[in-house]
Structure formats: C-alpha cells, structure tokens
Amino acid sequence: MTRGLAILLLLAALAAPAAAQGPVDPPALLRAWAEAYATNDGPRAAALYTEDARLWGSVSREQTVGHAAIARYFGRARPGAAQIAVRFGEHGLRLLSADVAVASGHYTFLRRNAEGVESEEPSRFSMTMLRGADGAWRIADHHSSRLPRER
C-alpha cells in the first residue's frame, strides 16, 4: 500500500461517524430490552440503560439506580422459574425530540417452571429513552408495576 493511500484511509476512518454501540431507534431498544430480559443476564440488560438510569422495578420496593444496581436487579435468580420472557401488549411510543422518546403501555411477564407450568404477570410500564452521542438509544428512566386486578 502506498503512503498516500494509507493516509487517505486513515483520514476517512477519522471522518466517519462513530458506529452506534446499541439499538439505533426506540422500537429496536424495546426489542433488545425484551431479549435481554429473557436471558436473565444482568450486565446485558444494564447495557441498555444510561449510566445514571433509574428503574422502578415491579418487584422492588425502592428505585434501582445505575448500571451496577440494574445489572444485579435483572441478573437475580427468579425462584422456581426455568424460563422467563416478556411480551409487549398495547403500548404507545412518542418521539418527543430527535434525542428523547417515551414508551408506555402494557407488557406481560411470562414464566415457565421446570415442570413446564406457565404463569403470567400482566404489568404496565413507561420508559424514557435518550439517544447518546454514539447514536444509540438507551433507557434513562423505567417504571414497571403489576396491573391491578379488576374490581
């Protein structure tokens, strides 16, 4: 390779925009979150949140703040659950600006135990998502709570 070509390739690499290190749009972030939740891999789930994110989990009495705490929250063992998943139901997604989106609605947590018995926990959620300098979307605030029983 000639020196001139090497310099041109280096300049092109420096001028290229940084590739997103995460989901590139809010719907992709919701899908990535559901996939990460199903793995029970705390660090994988936490990577979808901003460094200072706040989570009100449906099984927590207090807010979970920051990557390390969120990784612990999503990586904990779920007693009796051999398989877990989440299924989004009716929900809306609003793009408030080029870098801020809010999703809210219903989702259902699904669990299957070792004997194959399934259970469901209908829940509601809201997520505020921000686009970072790298172009990737991450969750900055997440609230989840079980759906109240009908009266």
- Order the strands across the largest sheet as they lie in space: 2-1-6-5-4-3
Spans of at least 5 consecutive residues whose pLDDT stays below 50 are: 3-19
Q: What do the pLDDT scores average to?
A: 85
Return the string of H and E elements: HHHEEHEEEE
Overall CATH architecture: Roll
SS summary, helix count:
4
Number of strands: 6
CATH class: Alpha Beta
Radius of gyration, taken over Cα atoms and rounded to an integer in Å: 19 Å
What does this molecule look like?
By secondary structure, the protein is an alpha+beta fold. The chain has one domain: Nuclear Transport Factor 2, Chain: A (Roll). The protein is about 25% helix and about 40% strand. It has 4 helices and 6 strands, in the order αααββαββββ. It has helices at about 5-15, 25-40, 40-45, 65-75; strands spanning about 50-55, 65, 85-95, 100-110, 120-130, 135-145. It has a 6-stranded mixed beta sheet with strand order 2-1-6-5-4-3, with helices on one face. A hairpin with a 5-residue loop joins β4 (about 100-110) and β5 (about 120-130). The longest helix is centred in the first third of the chain and has 14 residues, at about 25-40. The chain is globular. The relative contact order is 0.20. Residues about 5-20 have low confidence and may be disordered.
Task: Summarize this structure briefly.
The protein has 151 residues and is α+β, with helices and mostly antiparallel strands. It has 4 helices and 6 strands, in the order H-H-H-E-E-H-E-E-E-E.
Q: Could you give the topology of this structure?
A:
Blueprint: H1 3-15, H2 26-39, H3 42-46, E1 49-56, E2 64-65, H4 67-75, E3 83-97, E4 100-112, E5 118-131, E6 137-146
Parallel strand pairs: 1-6
Antiparallel strand pairs: 1-2, 3-4, 4-5, 5-6
